[in-house]
Amino acid sequence: MAIIGKNLELGSNKASIPSAYKLEHIYITNYKGDDPKDIKNIAVKMEISESLYSQSLMLKLTLKDSTNFIEEFPIIGQEKIEVIIKYKKRNGDDKNLKLKFFISEYPTYGTSDKQVYVQVITLVGISEQSYISNQKKISRSYTNNTANEIQRILIEELNLPKNKFRYSEDAISSSKGIIANQRPMDVIEWFRKQTYAEDSFSPFFFFQTLNGRYKLFSLASLVSEDNKVFETYYDSRGFTFDGNTDGDFRQRELRILSISSDLKLNKSIQSRRGAFASQNNYLDYSNKTYTKYEYNYGSDFVDSKPTLDGKKILSDKFLIGDDKLTDFTRAHCEYLSLNSKAFEGNTNYNNMSKISRHFMNAYNALLNTFTHDIRLNGNFKLNAGRKIKLEFPKAIDPVSYKDFTGKSGEADHRNKFLSGKYLITSAIHEFENDEYYVNLRVKRDSFSVDLDDSPKQL
Length: 458
Description:
By secondary structure, the protein is an alpha+beta fold. The chain is flat. It has helices spanning 69-72, 128-133, 146-157, 184-194, 219-223, 246-253, 267-272, 297-301, 349-366, 398-405, and strands at residues 22-29, 37-38, 43-51, 58-65, 80-88, 94-111, 119-126, 138-145, 165-167, 174-182, 204-208, 214-218, 229-234, 258-263, 277-284, 289-296, 333-338, 370-377, 387-391, 420-432, 435-444. α3 runs antiparallel to α4. 18% of the residues lie in helices and 35% in strands. The strands form 4 sheets. Strands 1, 2, 3, 4, 5, 6, 7, 13, 14, 18, 19, 20 and 21 form a 13-stranded mixed β-sheet that branches. A 3-stranded mixed β-sheet has the order 9-12-11. Strands 16-15-17 form a 3-stranded mixed β-sheet.
């Protein structure tokens, strides 16, 4: 079945369910470049992926061909695709999404066992900037703020309009050096790794969102209060509104359709990755000096570094012998060679790492504390880097819970440990069988309950 879209009410400008959309066009242009074809009627599945850990949007498009299009067009490995989607809010307002991709892979080709003269092919597309990056290398010196260097590469080397790049203003790292015959996106990744945020020393993410913009944002800015919570979603089963009403539409829009979770609460593994304590060793071979810094989660991170829900995830009451986990500084060790005389002002990569590496390790280790993969009705505003809230019910019958605790009401039946703010790290916008859903991976770096307030046990 072609993914042209449905569920728009006849005779009105309203969407009947949240997953409604209309696929206007999927234009494909071959090597000739002068006669694009609309292939929406042979497209049976489409996925558009965005992630904090990816430098490009990715398109995965499945075509079911019974018109010999693949040969006649032809598809030879030099194609571009433009996707145009129209969707409507419940109030009938039109929204349009237009995206362009360069095809980079053709991973699947096959024929049908049940249908004669039918062939299936899958196309994978990436952004223009990533495609260009694969074709060229750059060599030059640099001396600038790393965010400005990334912007320069995007505009001068990868043809990105200046208004298509945004970065958070807390990027303070600067250095001097040489770019030696590297692909532009590889250089951007190298700059990203050495970029850290002012005051918080948090790592940065470089990614592209569904509106086509590239972003360089610190983890601190993404979890801060300035990044407002987009919406609250509920893990519930029942419906309380009549069908085809505004209330029913809203309830479906906020419903978690499915969820699977990975709670990485193993403190031993987090400790080994530098979350709670680390020993950081620095050898400056220019003046033959050795220094050491011991990072401590309790004194260096808690109450001073931004997190999603603000509550610590480590208790001081848990002892191994007579030691806390923050006492095991050699659980994670870093060894850095420094050259303080390389440049005037010590502006080189390793010298910057001396003040930021232990914090960046801690941020990265803590972000995986909670991970949920959730499926929602489609929403083009659910993008990587947004914050959402999730609400989970307690795993106990409300009547039994009331009898046990004497508490009642909706707030009392909320699972306070799992519920709270989460950061969207990836979003896969999926179109199939004329329905639009979004599959999110969300993460959280902190608890929403105080560890000192132990829950009453049954």
